[in-house]
Design brief:
About 60% of the residues lie in helices and about 0% in strands. It is an all-alpha fold. It has one domain.
């Protein structure tokens, strides 16, 4: 049996958001067979399924190779943010301790920041996704339903990997301009971006789950070694992507002036 643990995208994060992970990987495992299959599976679909799993192995390996490029993309985005709106949130970073009215606007801009860091990662992985798309699109399935599932999966992942980041500095400056206001609000552009991002990432999550269920549908005990390989690679990618995106979030927080300040060492000379 194949199970999938989708790597989720950020949806509702605080001003110091948790790691933003992407819908790029499914953890695939093959359980020990419980006996003979009750329903016969067409050989042609079993072959396509095996080829799809092989293509997914190549995809995961490509993601691992691309991790340094993703790290550079995160750093470049943070540098561009520094150039345009350095420390813009410093004056209002502690506003939530003064007024609860700031909670939602700062939460929303935190979600926007995390989503942008996630998109830097996913955009870097577009080449690997294109290669996967080429291979999967060329597979011949015995029925129309599996091919449709693959098309939806690829389309949803493609939409996520090509989604443009927000105008983070413009939105941050709009938030900062409300410093001292008793009724601050989330910029409309932030709300619009988050709505779009959540829609695209949710679709990618849904279609990823459907794709992994498809792999499960035509698995055989002979596929166990291949499934174990996918599983091991997927876990490595999940860990590495977490580290990369966490680094991107930290860089953006630093750029905007909301990184946690280090406390002075007790007894240090002033």
């Amino acid at each position: 049996m194949v199970s999938a643990k989708a790597v989720q995208s950020p949806r509702s994060l605080s001003i110091i958001p948790r790691a933003a992970l992407l819908t790029l990987v499914a953890v695939v495992t093959l359980a020990a067979p419980a006996g003979a299959r009750q329903l016969p599976r067409p050989v042609i679909n079993a072959r396509a399924d095996r080829a799809a799993m092989g293509a997914y192995v190549a995809y995961l390996r490509a993601l691992l190779v691309a991790m340094p490029s993703a790290t550079l993309a995160e750093q470049s985005f943070a540098a561009a943010t520094v150039a345009s709106c350095r420390d813009a949130l410093t004056p209002i970073a502690d506003q939530t301790s003064v007024s609860s009215a700031w909670t939602q606007p700062l939460t929303d801009v935190g979600s926007e920041l995390a989503a942008d860091a996630a998109l830097q990662f996913s955009n870097t992985m577009a080449t690997a996704l294109t290669t996967l798309q080429t291979t999967l699109s060329g597979l011949h399935w015995g029925t129309a339903a599996p091919a449709a599932t693959v098309r939806r999966f690829l389309a949803a992942q493609g939409s996520l990997s090509t989604l443009a980041p927000s105008n983070l500095c413009g939105d941050v400056l709009a938030i900062a301009a409300q410093s001292g206001t008793q009724t601050p609000s989330t910029p409309p552009a932030t709300q619009s971006f988050l709505t779009q991002y959540q829609s695209v990432s949710s679709s990618a999550n849904t279609q990823l789950t459907a794709f992994v269920k498809l792999l499960d549908s035509f698995e055989t005990p002979a596929d166990r070694r291949l499934a174990n390989r996918v599983n091991a690679l997927a876990r490595r990618v999940a860990s590495a992507s977490d580290q990369v995106v966490q680094g991107g979030i930290a860089g953006l927080k630093q750029a905007l002036g909301i990184a946690p300040r280090r406390r002075p060492v007790a007894g240090a000379a002033g």
